[in-house]
Amino acid sequence: MQLRDGARRMLVTLGSGLALLGFAVAGNVSSALAATPPPAPTMAPPHRLLEADLFVVAPTTLRSSIATAVRRLHGVVAAEPLDAARLQVGGKLTAMLGVDPSEFRAFAPKPTADSARLWENVATGGVAVSYTMSKLDKLPLGKAVKVSGRRAEELPVAGLGTVGIGGVDAVVSDAVARSLGIPANNAIVISAPHADLSTLIKQIKKLLPRSAAVAPLVAQLAAEVVALRHPSHHQGLHRFFQGATWLWAGIFAASTIGLAVLMATETVKVFLLLTTAVTIGGTVAGTFLSALWFFRVLRRFGLRVRFAAS
Length: 310
Hints:
By secondary structure, the protein is α+β, with helices and mostly antiparallel strands. It has 2 domains: about 1-225, no CATH class; about 235-300. Helix content is about 40%, strand content about 20%. The chain has helices spanning about 1-5, 65-70, 100-105, 110-115, 115-125, 130-135, 175-180, 195-205, 220-225, 235-265, 270-300, and strands at about 10-15, 20, 55, 80-90, 90-100, 125-130, 145-150, 150-160, 170-175, 185-190, 215. It has a 6-stranded mixed barrel with strand order 4-5-9-6-8-7. The chain has a two-stranded antiparallel sheet with strand order 1-2. α10 (about 235-265) packs antiparallel against α11. About 40% of the residues are buried.
């Protein structure tokens, strides 16, 4: 009951809206050394990389039929079940995923997805941690770290990388996750890069039990961009910021060329009047187009703008 009550508090807001899990783990745990891992299996690289757009999480196991139904929804490219919880890693509460390494690595950013050794080490019982966690908690590659769930285990640090899901700092295999007491398949990561996320979220909610929740991962990525901590890998946001940059570059270039022509052909009085008109007109037009485009992106990806006190 205590695990279930803790799991109900697992949806916490990270940045501007990523709902992720919190999983209270309590009780006495016994220390156990991880067995010497077998030789790492050879793992083929992913056929393609996938964007992690939505994240579903529940306190308990989700029926397999839910993931199947999600895959059939319009715009969904992939939906991968996984295990998710917050556990003590090195004495600190950490968001952790239990995954099938051969399947989940496609959702990671390219440098992490391309690291075959990292995923092979995860498959043989190690824990992959984020660069930030490794630096702050002084967890060098290969060092054993204590992970405490329903039981405590010493797991070797299998690799350092970025998972691609904001707030998640540790990844283990699904087998290790089960041994730690993480609910099996209580989460789903969804790739739907070209879907209207607000519409898709409404459709997914109809498939979920009341205890489950779904949130757009792009919201966390947006928060990361604003805070200038990590670049966004989401194509929709990337296209918007890139396009807005080119829009304003074009406006300033056109204004410069136009003013140069006016300077050479018009009197000073006319030039000053037209300079004012062109500057104001270009600024207003650029601001209107940027704002219109920005709000369309917010609506498409299910984002909200919130202003918090500093």
